[in-house]
Amino acid sequence: MTRTEELLSISSAPLVTTPPDNSATTKDFHLGSELIAMLERKNGFYAFESALHVFPLTGEPVGGSNLAEWNSDSLWRSDYGDLTSRLLFFAEDVFQDQFCLSSSGVLRFSAETGGTKPIAQSLESWAELILRDDHATGWTLAKTWQAENGPLTPGKRLMPKIPFFLGGAYSMDNLWAGDAVEGMRFKADLALQTRNLPDGAQVRIVLGAKPTN
């Protein structure tokens, strides 16, 4: 059994029951065929008690988006400006850090900062990372939060009251369940406001309309 097959075997039922249509969404990425192969076997899924969310290639999942919708400029990614260019977002952890395809392999995209980090050269090595590292999906904290507050419903992710990159703790009292799209839009605003600040700089986050001077 491959690591991708193992991940599929422990995941939820497919989020869309109809087989995915072949999509032009992945054509510009050398790992696109690997992603399509995985989604042809299971068209979107959750794993690790909803900590990992993999988007279906096509179709209409309950309470969520398919791959094309999640990557459309009209939903949230254009809010990040050029930080999302030449990336294809196919999955997310429970705190909304994204897993994405790039020209060099699989990257982890920090939703709060817009920064990226290479994590795998193939979907198989990505699946191996997800399986061996609880921190890759936020599973441990997601499990504890849901034990006290009930299951996360489709379209919801865990949001920090104080952003993690500003010192917010990975703890129960700093988390709440919010809408995934609105969460990404808010985090995009954070990322653009802080993208050029040096480490250790004092931060004043502006919510709503921005000042003109």
Describe this structure in words.
The chain has a 6-stranded antiparallel beta sheet with strand order 1-2-3-4-5-6. It has a two-stranded antiparallel ribbon with strand order 7-8. With 213 residues, it is α+β, with helices and mostly antiparallel strands. Helix content is 27%, strand content 17%. The protein starts with a helix and ends in a 19-residue tail after the last helix. The chain has one domain (3-194). The protein is built from 6 helices and 8 strands. It is globular. It has helices at 3-9, 32-41, 67-70, 123-132, 139-149, 180-194, and strands at residues 45-47, 52-54, 88-92, 98-102, 105-109, 116-120, 156-160, 175-179. Strand 3 and strand 4 (98-102) form a beta hairpin. Mean pLDDT is 91; it is low at 209-213. Helix 1 crosses helix 4 (123-132).
Can I get a quick summary?
The chain is built from six helices and eight strands; from the N terminus they run ααββαββββααββα.
Poorly predicted runs are: 209-213
Q: In percent, how helical is the residue content? A: 25-40%
First-last Cα distance: 59 Å
How would you classify the quaternary structure? single chain
User: Could you tell me the mean pLDDT?
Assistant: 91
Tally of separate domains: 1
SSE order, as H and E?
A: HHEEHEEEEHHEEH
Question: Got a strand count?
Answer: 8
